[in-house]
Design a protein that fits this description.
Layout: H1 8-17, H2 21-36, H3 38-47, E1 61-65, E2 75-79, H4 88-108, E3 120-124, E4 133-135, E5 140-142, H5 157-171, H6 179-201, E6 211-212, E7 227-228, E8 237-238, E9 242-243, H7 259-262, H8 268-281, H9 289-298, H10 308-323, H11 328-339
Parallel strand pairs: 1-3, 3-5
Antiparallel strand pairs: 1-2, 4-5, 6-7, 8-9
Helix pairs in contact: 1-2, 4-5, 4-6, 5-6, 6-8, 8-11, 9-10, 10-11
């Protein structure tokens, strides 16, 4: 199962159309590496389970350096409580793992990614100019980018928050990584990736940029980020990347056999629904809208093959349980899904 931050349609475009042979080859190599990781992560998702702890503990972080090879985890360069290495990538990720751990602990009382104190492991400098970052079912992995289109995967906090949330979904029962359930899987990672960033910056919903991956593009790339939750389809429009293909509503849902049925593309629809709900509710988005989505995800009731309508109905029901069936929060959730064309019965 492919679960990396850069969608295959972006890498396909580079591999097929970029004028620079080196960048075409790097994109092809990244696609090959990502494809080879699918089965390992699919197996991890099937067996993932953990016994909850009595309460959140402290993070247990270990950072490794792959030395530009494709073997994991690599040489240990920093452990929990250890001094900074001086390697920007390693030290950024040590910090971002801590921020993400603290977010889930403080906002939802969750003890690490699995809810049972899972140690947080990451590897930096993976492969040569690898154009991606991913969660492989047990740890985080970061490439250095090609330095002409993608310059960093360790810099944007929401990249780490997004990928670690795939682990949260994995340990919460999982969502099939195809079609609408796969798009929900991706959307949940964008939702909580953005909330991690908002939490770190102390932003309210109306102050947030709702962008995923801002800062990873090199100068000269025509784009602000990898995705926009507020305005899907507007994040980038560049001859080397193509145009952001995400739809903003069901009227423009993309039917495709690529990317497991468009999991990175159609995730724009539930992304926008969350953004609309969060901004309508107001305040810090992780406190109410985020709580609704989190409780829905972790409540043990979401079918692994859930479609948008199923998940929408469940978030609406959760909002009613948390805040009242006639509450402003419940109304905001219903209206958000209705706006993107997903009707709640």
């Amino acid at each position: 199962m492919r679960c990396a931050i850069i969608p295959p349609h972006v890498l396909d475009h580079i591999a097929e159309r970029h004028r620079d042979e080196r960048l075409r080859e790097l994109a092809e190599r990244t696609l090959a590496i990502d494809s080879g990781r699918r089965d390992a992560r699919a197996a991890a998702q099937l067996i993932a389970s953990a016994e909850p702890t009595s309460g959140p503990s402290a993070p247990k972080r270990t950072i490794h350096d792959a030395g530009h090879r494709e073997r994991l985890p690599g040489r240990t360069v920093r452990s929990e409580g250890g001094p900074a290495t001086g390697d920007k990538a390693a030290d950024e990720i040590y910090d971002w793992l801590g921020v993400t751990f603290d977010f889930y602990r403080s906002a939802y009382g969750r003890d690490s990614i699995d809810g049972a104190g899972l140690p947080l492991v990451a590897t930096v400098h993976y492969a040569v100019n690898y154009d991606n970052a991913f969660w492989d079912g047990s740890q985080m992995v970061y490439g250095d980018g090609d330095q002409q289109i993608f310059t960093t995967f360790t810099g944007p906090l929401d990249v780490t928050g997004h990928e670690l949330t795939h682990g949260v979904t994995q340990y919460s029962g999982g969502l099939d990584y195809s079609d609408q359930s796969g798009a929900l899987n991706e959307s949940l990672s964008d939702v909580f990736g953005s909330l991690v960033k908002q939490y770190h910056l102390g932003q309210t919903a109306d102050q947030a940029d709702w962008l995923i991956g801002q800062g990873m593009f090199a100068s000269g790339v025509h784009g602000t980020a990898l995705r926009s939750m507020k305005a899907p389809g507007t994040a980038y429009d560049d001859p080397n990347l193509g145009k952001d293909p995400q739809p903003a509503d069901m009227a423009h849902f993309v039917k495709t056999s690529r990317d497991n049925g468009g999991v990175h593309i159609n995730s724009g629809i539930p992304n926008r629904a969350f953004c609309l709900a969060a901004t309508a509710i107001g305040g810090h988005a992780w406190e109410k809208a985020g709580r609704i989505w989190y409780d829905t995800l972790t409540g043990g009731q979401v079918p692994t093959d859930a479609d948008f309508a199923t998940f929408a109905g469940m978030t609406h029901a959760t909002a009613g349980k948390l805040f009242g069936v006639k509450s402003a929060e419940s109304d905001a959730v219903r209206q958000a899904w209705t706006t993107v064309g997903v009707e709640i019965e």
